What does this fold into?
Amino acid sequence: MNEHSMYYEQYTEILKYELVPAMGCTEPIAIAYCAAKARSLSDDPCTKVIVEASGNIIKNVKSVTVPNTNGLKGIEAAAAVGIVAGDPEKKLEVIASVSDQQKEELNRFLQSTPIEVRYLRSPIPLDMIITLETTHGSNSVRIAGSHDHIIWMKQNDKVIYEDTIQEEEAPPIDTSFMSVEGILDYATHCALESVKPTLDRQIQYNMAIAQRGLEQNYGANIGKILLRRKDSSLLNKVKAYAAAGSDARMSGCELPVIINSGSGNQGMTASIPVIVWANEKQADKDSLYRALLVSNLITIHLKQGIGKLSAYCGVVSAGVGAACGICYLQGGDLHAISHTLVNAIAMISGTVCDGAKASCAAKIASAVEAGLLGYEMYLNGQQFKDGEGIVTKGVENTIRNISLLAKEGMQQTDKEIIEIMTGCC
It folds into this structure.
């Protein structure tokens, strides 16, 4: 694949679209962004806030700490900080800059302004409407499909902006052409100058938060626990660093990360193991870049048929992507990477998403371990074969099975998880 081939530029654009910075878990940040956008529609004082959110939004905001709020959790905190201190121009870094004075104002706002949370029955897993009632009317914004995808904005029930894509969950950029073979071709022949800024930022941001997670006390400290083992293996180290990033992020660390497929945990899982592995093996920088292209794009490919949010834990896809990136770094070809992917996905495809929280770090460690076990199976001439469970002949056919399982088959599972966690549905 060269720069003039049909899909070359599309792969580059997918990377730039998906690998963007976000501070804080992306669901509460999406609420903060939506609320900040609603506030920006007028200067009238807010008298009441109504947050309508789909079940997947509710479950992913319930237990995670919102950055720059002095440890607050939940939808009310996310909406309030967006209203009081959010900069909607920064999108998923909307609350990256919150002063001490604004934190005090946030507390006063929460005490004085009613915030009503309603369950939004929607066929779109990622869907929210935030309405600010003001002294002279109301302002409303709807985000759906992607964390920063504004569907419409209304002022006093009059539509002042409407997206032509409307309620579709399909991303604004086409990913349907992607394949494992195409990804490897692109990663091998990519002119790295076009993607270095994107990947350098991913390396810098995601390793910084992993290091912070190992240095300080966050969540259940899964990363630290792994490093305290009497296990000096590289496998244990890559698991620990990836988990430490999630320890910090889920507990309100104010460092940004580079996300993948709308998720910071997925962005960290797809990148940190590959970076740590490359550093330990003293791989050259260009080899690391190409391995990151493989891990990131395979993660996106696995997620494209599943959707941004579902009952299927997204770090499974990212753990598999990371293992494929490491396989590539070690000289693996299409045959090796396909077998690594299928072996890994066969092990952990039943892992469920029960919301963003401290235990995500442990799931990341498990996903990375399963991914690398899949690679080790290949190195030892072992594989899961056609007809064994959801595994079928051809890597793309197995990926399609995973998409069906996650998006269609696990819909009732998702409803039950949300009902258990929130009483919604």
Notes: Residues 196-215 form the longest helix (20 residues). The chain has a mean pLDDT of 93. The chain has two domains: 23-162, 178-422.
